Amino acid sequence: MARDLAGFALPFVTRGTPSRLDGRGAAATNDMAPFLKEHTMPQTPPLAIERYIATVDRAIADEAVLEELVDIFAPNAVVQLDDTPVRGSRAIRELYRDFIAIHVEAKHFWNATVLPDGRQRAEWACAARMSDGSLVTVAGLEHATVGTDDRIVDLRNELTRPPA
């Protein structure tokens, strides 16, 4: 039988099988089994910045998702992916229409958090196939200010690894 640092006996827990190795052998049942049933933890809704990144990949795969992507932003939002910010739904739609046009497929990976000032931050990396057939990888940081309606009002991108 296993023991913890204080010398107390520890049962081995394996779901659905006898698991207590305390001399009663394989016929023993797990006394904790009723408490160890599969439970699903409540899922926290994704952050706006996470919805945005995931929707970019979906929009590249299916241009019909473009309007869903634009709807993640407030009507008068500012998006700055490079040195030139754009403002408003029409300009954001055009920015992402052009962005989608040069990609065939993309897969982003990210870690997101909420900063103490309330902004959302995502450290991201992406592998993509471009419309000319080339493959690229790129990485960066994005910061989003989100309104009370959970829509992005300001999005700033900083590349930490330029496309290569």
TrEMBL record:
SUPFAM superfamilies xref list: NTF2-like
Report the InterPro entries cross-referenced here: NTF2-like_dom_sf, SnoaL-like
Would you say which domain of life the source belongs to?
Bacteria
Every copy of the SnoaL-like domain together lies at 63-154
Q: What is this protein called?
A: Nuclear transport factor 2 family protein
**Native species of this protein?**
Prauserella cavernicola
